[in-house]
Structures are given as C-alpha cells and as structure tokens.
Amino acid sequence: MGAGEKKVFTLAQVFQHSSREDCWLLIGGRVTFLPLPALCPFIYFVSPFIRPRHKVKDEGRWWGNRVYDLTKFLEEHPGGSDILLSVTGKDATVDFEDVGHSPGARNMMEQYYVGDIDDSSTPVKRADTPPKPNNQDKTAEFIVKILQFLIPLAILGLAFGIHFYSKST
C-alpha cells in the first residue's frame, strides 16, 4: 500500500484474513452486535476511546474502524501472540487500555494499517430492552394491598364490638 493510499474493506473481507498466518485486526471502533463465527477468532474490536475523533453516525453504526494486518507483528508483540489472541472476538477496549500502550506503540500501529471498514457492511447497533414484568406480580401486589386495608378494618370492628358488648352487660 502506498503512502496516503487508503483501501475500504467489508467485514466479510476482513474475516477472510483470520488465521495466524494472515491475521487482520479491526481497531479504532466497535461493532456492538456481531456474531463471530468460530472460524474468525483472530479479529477483535477496540472501542473509539482509543481514537476519540471516531464518532457514531445517526443510524447507529460505528465508523472510523481501521484495519491492521498484524500477521508479521503477532510474534513480535511484547506480550506474545497469546495476549492478542486472548482478546479476539470481543470488545477489547478495556484490555487494550489497561495495558497502557505508549504513544510510540500507538504510532507503530500505523505501519500495519491496510485500510478502513466499509460502514455499510457493519451491523446496526441494537438497543437493549428491559424484560417486561410478569403479570402475576401485579396480582400479588393487589392482594397485599387489599389485606393491608381489610385486616386493620377487621381489628377496629372487633375492638368496637368488644367495647359495646362489654358496656351493655
């Protein structure tokens, strides 16, 4: 790839480079919902906290995802290749930031840069919806509220009954 030349890949193209001999990684953005097949264990996603200039588009897709070919660097990684492989297939933001990569290490990533991800190939971010409450809980709450009203009323009625019965005798 020439200087300044930038290529755009789809996620499927990145997945084709998912072995120890041909390892491409996606860094600089996060795809929030992506079912990774078992054949693609060498791809990981790092959130935009690494490169704050990357933003979310209105339709909920992440953009600014940069693709790096780290095949040659896999064995040279100071923590070993197992460290990189252990964070594949998930959002590795916390793992990446916990290490505290130096600015030199971040700059070194540029030599492995091969292109960006085509934004239209990334799945749309899905919002989590809380589970709906069970209707049986409402029935139990209703019974408790009725008992909270009826029991004191019954005790009060019993007290008045005893008071009037004892007065008349």
From TrEMBL:
Entry keywords, A to Z: Electron transport, Endoplasmic reticulum, Heme, Iron, Membrane, Metal-binding, Transmembrane, Transmembrane helix, Transport
Record Pfam families: Cyt-b5 (PF00173)
Cell location: Endoplasmic reticulum membrane
Keyword set includes Transcription: no
Major subcellular site: endoplasmic reticulum
Domain Cytochrome b5 heme-binding positions: 6-118
Segments passing through the bilayer: 24-47, 142-165
Membrane topology of the entry: Single-pass membrane protein
Family matches, as SMART domains: Cyt-b5 (SM01117)
CC annotations in GO: endoplasmic reticulum membrane
Domain of life, per lineage: Eukaryota
Any one GO MF annotation of this record: heme binding
Database matches in InterPro entries: Cyt_B5-like_heme/steroid-bd, Cyt_B5-like_heme/steroid_sf, Cyt_B5_heme-BS, Cytochrome_b5
UniProt record similarity statement: Belongs to the cytochrome b5 family.
Protein's name in the database: Cytochrome b5 heme-binding domain-containing protein
Biological source species: Punica granatum (Pomegranate)
Taxonomic placement: Eukaryota, Viridiplantae, Streptophyta, Embryophyta, Tracheophyta
